[in-house]
Amino acid sequence: MTGSLKRILLGEQGLVVIFAIAFAVVSLTVPNFLTERNMLGLLQSVVTIGIVACTMMFCLASRDFDLSVGSIVAFSGMVAVMASNATGSIPLGLLIAVGFGTFVGFVNGVVIAKLKINALITTLATMQIVRGLALISSDGRAVGINDASFYQLALSKFLGVPTPIWVMVALFVIFGFVLNRTVFGRNTLAIGGNPEASRLAGVNVDWMRIWIFTLQGLVCAIAGILLASRITSGQPNAATGLELSVISACVLGGVSLAGGRAAITGVIVGVLILGIAENVMNLLNIQAFYQYVVRGLILLLAVLLDNLRSRSLGRR
């Protein structure tokens, strides 16, 4: 393999080419894959991962991790249901849920940036605390929805496409613009590349990290609300393992674990690769037990690709 070809394959363009080839092969070999119903189902299945990946991209690009996203998604969905039931107002319930998710993200950011506690340890602790609160508040059981209008968040459609898919697409556009066209995005990549140099250049690194985690909490709340509407209840055990799927999608899409590198198109492709892998296994009636193995292999592949990309960039 020539050096130029290797750089293309390890770069963003290579990922898109590989995805296009894989998509074509799957379309031709797997029955019912390319039907409209299956395509919409596939996109709906990756809504939660895709939404959370929008801001996980910023966390990873700034050299941080957030392992608490699954717990925040689950509890935010439960808060939305419980608050809506208690107040009789769905908008108020949604606002309370968004406030909760945002607050947890803010706390994560403050602890990491101001108290200088490692992001991995901080969010691991938050993951346990928030999941515990979800189980305590519901006594370990699903919380039913009183007002059927809540279901319309997931069931409603625009131009024949379910609303959650439009929300995911909108967030991809928004955060893609933020990453590529704003000072916030440039500073995020700069912090990931060299935090100390960014600080000397006048970037308020601590507040940047706080903002990134706050946005992560906000987006997790949105994902949790849509998930609760889709599964028609608040589930304390929902979104278990979501953090690993989201990180896999981001790293597979070219976001560097070492920080300083991210691209929204790569993240989108990474999300779709995870969705297609699971969708194909379902269409082929492969047992769920094997799907865990495949997810683990995809995570390993993502890390391997990240190492290869870093080495390739380091040799330039």
TrEMBL record:
Main location: membrane
Membrane topology summary: Multi-pass membrane protein
Localization per Swiss-Prot or TrEMBL: Cell membrane
Highest rank taxon of the organism: Bacteria
Pfam families: BPD_transp_2
Transmembrane segments: 14-34, 40-60, 67-86, 92-113, 158-179, 210-232, 244-277, 289-308
Keywords assigned by UniProt, alphabetized: Cell membrane, Membrane, Transmembrane, Transmembrane helix
PANTHER family found in the cross-reference section: ABC TRANSPORTER PERMEASE PROTEIN YPHD-RELATED-RELATED, L-ARABINOSE TRANSPORT SYSTEM PERMEASE PROTEIN ARAH
Identification of the protein by name: L-arabinose transport system permease protein
